[in-house]
Design a protein that fits this description.
The complex is a heterodimer of chains A (184) and B (400). Chain A is of the alpha/beta class. Chain A has helices at 11-23, 43-52, 69-79, 94-104, 116-146, 152-163, and strands at residues 2-7, 26-28, 31-33, 35-40, 57-60, 84-89, 108-111, 171-172, 178-179. Chain A is built from six helices and nine strands; from the N terminus they run E-H-E-E-E-H-E-H-E-H-E-H-H-E-E. Helices cover 58% and strands 17% of the residues of chain B. Chain B has helices at 11-14, 17-30, 75-198, 204-209, 212-244, 256-268, 291-312, 342-347, 365-375; strands at residues 36-39, 44-46, 54-60, 63-70, 252-254, 275-281, 287-289, 316-324, 328-335, 379-385, 389-397. In chain B, the strands form three sheets. In chain B, strands 6-8-9-11-10 form a five-stranded mixed β-sheet, with helices on one face. A four-stranded antiparallel β-sheet of chain B has the order 2-1-4-3. The radius of gyration of chain B is 57 Å and the shape is rod-shaped. The mean pLDDT of chain B is 82. Classes of the chains: A alpha/beta (184), B alpha+beta (400). Chain A binds chain B through residues 9-13, 15-17, 19-20, 23-24, 63, 65, 89-91, 93, 111-114, 116, and chain B through 162, 166, 169-182, 184-185, 188, 218, 221-222, 225, 228-229, 355, 357-359.
Chain lengths: 184, 400
């Protein structure tokens, strides 16, 4: 079950996407993904949700009130760096596109109106790519552990860090006290 | 000015040929038939010089310039003739001196005048060249300025066209996106209904198996949403049309107060409860304007004011006032609604910039209003404070 978050200030878009992802198969080769969708019309609320729940894929509009899609995905990337990211937008100028690719590292930019088949295959590809990446990392860690380059503790710390970014960092105050982040 | 007026004179200058023709014969008579004038070097100027003739020097300026010679005249007569000739010569010298002096003076005057004139001409030429150069420089500068302004203007125009295009693309592509997707989904739903035909015998069971309750309900929602989306696209297109039509319409001469009253009567029926409208209209002179556009703009501004008050969630009042002076006509539309933040105020005239939820406003109202005011060579100003309200001021200049 892959968890997907949709963010768009346009309710009509969210509903249409939910319908589409409910009835259409999301497959790549012989791999088929079943999707669990959460949708938000406010990027601020979406970001709050992303701080508490893991997602495999974020799909965001570009032009939104409060913050644009790039700002949103940048913030999301800090919280969940391994999640795949797509932008689905009716318009973005070249600057926005450049920023999206360079600052956020999006997997795809899909224009509105979208082609259902293209959108589904883009989602499937990003999810498959993400799975592959995670699997690679796991295998590489196993090999490193066998070669004695990494301890199981370090790998566990990495896993925890991926789940809760910042958990393995300790903020020392100048007087030796431990500072706790209030929002974590 | 090569000769000096008081130079030494030679005898043949003082007694030129014409003079000699008249003096010579007179001398011959005076001196008894035979007379000659010989210059200092011994050249004969008149008569026949005989070697043994008596000579008398003709002295001018202490020097003999010539000799008067005569065989026939006695000493006395010769001396008398000499005195006469000397007098004549002196008179000649004086006359020559005076005339030369006069000539010199005139020539000098003329020369200085000529120089002066040349200098004047020169400075005039310099001035002409300079002024020509200046004019050329000014022309070049003006041209450059105009070019830059044109470039700025085009850049601004391009920017706003770009902005507009971006806005249109975004605004239209959004509903287009979901309508298109919805219709594709609906195709799928119809396929599910099609599947019922083969399983009609199973009745209720087949209906449940195909999940047709959901399909039916969601299909209805889907179509309703798509219709709304299509309507939105139509609205955007028509607003764009009126937005771009500002410069093409028929002008009329009318009273803006009539327009205000019309717009007020239209809007009064649509005002949310708790919002009242007050008109304070002073008599106005007529104005040549585009009534369709003016009405559209006033309606939009009044609607904005009403929405601002209803968003504030308290009763309020829209105040409309008009006044005129010799400069032009001023209209204020005040509300005590939500107002705008500084950032919203800065972007208020931007096409497709809206603070309203998606679909409620296209974000073209104030942009169009500004274009309409500019088409009447007027001004539109916004003053707004958060939670205090907004005042829109329109100014239309009167033709001088």
């Amino acid at each position: 079950m892959s968890r997907v978050m949709l963010v768009d200030d346009e309710e009509g878009i969210l509903k249409a996407l939910k319908r589409l992802l409910r009835v259409a198969p999301c497959t790549l080769g012989n791999k088929s993904f079943s999707l669990e969708i959460e949708s938000f019309s406010s990027p601020v609320q979406a970001l709050e949700r992303a701080r508490h729940e893991p997602f495999d894929l974020f799909i965001s509009d570009f032009r939104m009130p409060e913050m644009d899609g790039i700002e949103f995905l940048k913030a999301v990337k800090e919280v969940q760096p391994d999640a795949a990211r797509l932008i689905l937008s009716g318009y973005a100028d070249l600057n926005a596109l450049v920023r999206a690719v360079n600052e956020v590292g999006i997997d795809r930019f899909i224009g509105k109106p979208w082609n259902d088949y293209e959108l589904l295959s883009a989602i499937a590809q990003s999810l498959a790519h993400r799975d592959l990446m995670l699997e690679n990392r796991q295998l590489a860690n196993l090999v490193r552990m066998e070669m004695g380059e990494k301890t199981p503790e370090a790998i566990e710390a990495e896993r925890l860090e991926a789940m809760e970014p910042g958990i393995t960092q300790v903020n020392w105050g100048p007087d030796g006290s431990v500072l706790l982040d209030p929002d974590r | 000015m090569n000769s000096n007026f008081d130079r030494e004179w030679r005898i043949e200058e003082l007694l030129d040929q014409g003079m000699m023709q008249r003096v010579g014969p007179a001398l011959n008579v005076l001196l008894g038939g035979d007379a000659a004038i010989v210059d200092a070097d011994g050249h004969v100027l008149w008569g026949i010089a005989v070697a043994e003739a008596r000579r008398e020097p003709l002295v001018l300026e202490l020097e003999p310039v010539a000799y008067l010679a005569s065989q026939s005249a006695d000493q006395k007569a010769l001396a008398g003739a000499r005195t006469l000739l000397e007098l004549l010569l002196r008179t000649q010298v004086r006359y020559k001196m005076a005339s030369n002096l006069h000539l010199e003076a005139v020539a000098e005057d003329f020369e200085s005048l000529r120089l002066e004139h040349a200098r004047l001409q020169e400075s005039e030429a310099r001035y002409k060249a300079l002024s020509g150069e200046l004019e050329a420089r000014v022309r070049a500068q003006v041209l450059q300025l105009e070019e830059r302004q044109q470039m700025l203007y085009s850049a601004e125009k391009l920017a706003s066209v770009g902005q507009l295009a971006a806005g249109v693309a975004h605004e239209v592509n959004n509903p287009l996106g979901f309508v298109r997707s919805n219709l594709a989904t609906f195709q799928h739903y119809l396929g599910q209904f099609g599947g019922l035909k083969a399983r009609l015998g199973e009745g209720e069971v087949a209906w449940q198996a195909l999940d047709l309750d959901f399909v039916l309900e969601d299909g209805g929602d889907l179509l309703a949403e798509s219709l709304k989306g299509i309507d939105r696209i139509a609205k955007i297109v028509s607003e764009l049309k009126s937005f771009s039509n500002v410069d093409r319409a028929s002008e009329e001469f009318l009273d803006l107060n009539d327009c205000l009253r019309q717009a007020a009567s239209v809007i009064e029926g649509q005002l949310p409860p708790g919002v009242s409208l007050r008109l304070e209209l002073l008599p106005l002179p007529g104005l040549v304007c585009l009534p369709g556009h003016i009405n559209q703009m006033l309606l939009g501004l009044l609607r904005n004011a009403g929405q601002a008050i209803s968003e504030a969630g308290r009763p309020g009042e829209i105040g409309v006032s008009s006044a005129a002076d010799e400069q032009g006509i001023t209209i204020h539309i005040r509300d005590n609604g939500v107002g705008m933040t500084a950032e919203q105020l800065a972007r208020a005239f931007e096409p497709f910039y809206t603070t309203r939820p998606v679909g409620a406003g296209a974000g073209l109202g104030l942009t169009t209003a500004r274009n309409i005011v500019l088409a009447h060579s007027g001004r539109i100003d916004l003053v707004s404070y958060r939670d205090v309200g907004t005042t829109v001021t329109l100014f239309f200049p009167l033709p001088k």
